[in-house]
User: What shape does this take?
Amino acid sequence: MKVIITHTDLDGVASAALILRGVGSVDKIFFAQPNQLYGVLRKIPNGADVYVSDLGMNTSILERVLEEVERIIKGGGRIRWFDHHIWKEEWIAGLKDRGVEIYVDTSTCGAGVVARYLPVEGEGVGELVSATCSIDLWRFNDWRGNFLARYVGFKGGAEWREKVAYRLKDFDGMLSQDIIDTVSQVFDEELKTYSRVLREAKVTRTAGMTIAYVLKKDDEHTTSYIGNLLLNRFQAKIAVICREGSVSFRSIGDTDVSSLAMRLGGGGHKNAAGAPIKAPLLHRFLRKVGIKGPYLSWCISRVVQTLESE
Ligand SMILES: [Mn+2]
Assistant: This one.
């Protein structure tokens, strides 16, 4: 059995597309958030041929992930892991000890790591990597990335993402009419989201920094744009995007949010990171019935406490 486990965003989907291009086809593609990785690994049978991409590690899942990869490999399986997030040396060593072939390279995006180390070559590969890194690394230097990120974000769910991965497998650098039409629909919705974010965002100050924060739904292709919007509009050092089950951080320049995320049990990059969070049941319930205030206050107070406890 051959499977891909990858992140849910453009980088994850593009990584899957490049793996498909490199290996032909697979039996199943799992799309996961970092905190869902362990749950997915548990479902993988012994002896499977597994490709993991664009998914980092964090201390809260490490031990359980090690157990699962050991089980899969001892059963005759093979695991190749491609990532570009910040890893501790001991995490890499732990996986290598269990036989995982791991490639971590922070100089590119997840799709770039797959292309470089699987490796995958051919027409359009460099273009797909460039467009993907443009969004994922916040370079914004390849306009096609803006289209592809929205194409991936058109619908939630694994079915759509898998369809996109197979479509991008043969990406030749051109945007098809189908992509352009889908993206224009997405963009209309997005503009509504941005106005809502600016209406609902709040600002707090701690440790001499302005922090802008907002609550948002689970669709995540807009996270970086919302982060950028909050940082700019409120002249904030850190933008905090709270959602059900997780929180994302964005910053500019020297402000490092990856250490903040790590202290909350997550991880990421210096200017873009995230962590799992679990609010008390009451707050989650109120949020579900449309009373968002307590959830957002709880989320930002967790972040502020963590920043102040440095
Ligand atoms: Mn990525």
User: Anything to note?
Assistant: The pocket of manganese (II) ion is lined by residues 11, 54, 84, 109-110, 136 (CB under 6 Å). The first strand starts at residue 2 and ends at 7. The longest helix spans residues 177-200.
